Amino acid sequence: MTELEQKSKTITWVDPHPQLEAAMTMSGLDYLQAMIDGKLPAPPIASHINLEIASVAPGEAVMAATPDESHYNPIGSVHGGFFATLLDSVCGCAVQTTLPVGTAYTSLDLNVSFLRGITSDTGRVVAHGRVTKPGSRAAFVEADIRDSDGRLLATATSTCLIFKP
């Protein structure tokens, strides 16, 4: 076997613990908008998949991520975990936009349908999450991922538990 070229990627993030306290003093929508505005740092997971929150509105979130070769699976395409991480993130943030001060959420389930493959050549992909039914105990969400040409790459549905920490 010939020697293979080794590549590397540096991932940096900000300690998330201080911002967790801020999260409980703001509505979910205000908290996410503060991240978009640069007043609060992005969550650590964002650096792993080159994720950014593009926009938020009540019951909606839009995120973008750029896959690279570090996201590949053994068959030479982007791993399904990249899709799932992006979809879980956009679903959760869509729910978070509906939450009042002092309320939190966590994912209960995530059902993903992979419709097209992604490679590093796909470039930036955009995920859109929409709350289909908000609630005080559970919220239901749907989401999709599209490429720059608007082609549908994956869809998801999710249920999130709503609670007071």
TrEMBL record:
Residues 76-153 form the Thioesterase domain. It comes from the Bacteria. NCBIfam families: unchar_dom_1 (TIGR00369). It comes from Aeromicrobium panaciterrae. This is Uncharacterized protein (TIGR00369 family). InterPro entries: ACOT13 (IPR039298), HotDog_dom_sf (IPR029069), PAAI_dom (IPR003736), Thioestr_dom (IPR006683). Belongs to the thioesterase PaaI family. Pfam families: 4HBT (PF03061). Keywords: Hydrolase.
